[in-house]
Write a structure and sequence with these properties.
Number of helices: 9
Structural class: mainly alpha
Largest sheet: none
Length: 171
């Protein structure tokens, strides 16, 4: 495959056509036509469980994830980037980490989510992936559209595994 985008398109095309690996204990659910359809129609709880199973450090190391997050976050719209940052801050605050403390610890340009750069949001997402992977998965489950900006073939393959579980009863 020439590029990771082509690889990702091929995986998503296979899944949209119903080509899949049968996963053990695959839940019986509605048929989804594509990952976008899955992202729109599935519940947050379904996505949390699914991403919890597939987005693990043993499958994607933080060293692999960080550059992908930087690329992905740079591609999303500023208002969507604000939403992602606000969600990370909200969840991290529940763990006793204030936005001001995170600003200092991560050397962010600001603690105001609406004024954060793509680099700031990337640092925040990377921190969550390293230190609080459950929060990272929960935020992705809440904002599944962000997944389609990840271009690494390994990430696409993991998405393929995850989506295959949901598409397993298509045929």
């Amino acid at each position: 495959m020439a590029t990771s985008d082509e690889y990702k398109r091929e995986i998503m095309g296979d899944l949209a056509r119903g080509d899949r690996e049968v996963m053990p204990n695959a839940p019986q659910t509605d048929d989804y036509q594509s990952f976008d359809d899955f992202a729109q129609r599935s519940t947050k709880e379904e996505r949390q469980r699914l991403f919890g199973e597939s987005l693990q450090h043993d499958r994607i190391s933080p060293a692999q994830m960080e550059p992908e997050l930087q690329k992905a976050i740079a591609q999303i719209k500023p208002d969507e980037r604000d939403d992602v940052a606000q969600e990370f801050f909200k969840e991290l605050k529940k763990r006793g980490l204030s936005d001001r403390d995170l600003e200092k610890q991560l050397t962010l340009s600001t603690h105001n989510a609406k004024k954060m750069s793509a680099d700031d949001v990337s640092k925040l997402a990377s921190f969550a992936y390293h230190a609080h992977p459950d929060i990272f998965r929960d935020v992705l489950a809440d904002k599944p559209w962000m997944m389609k900006f990840l271009s690494n073939p390994l990430v696409a393959a993991i998405l393929g595994i995850a989506a295959a579980k949901w598409l397993s009863n298509r045929k």
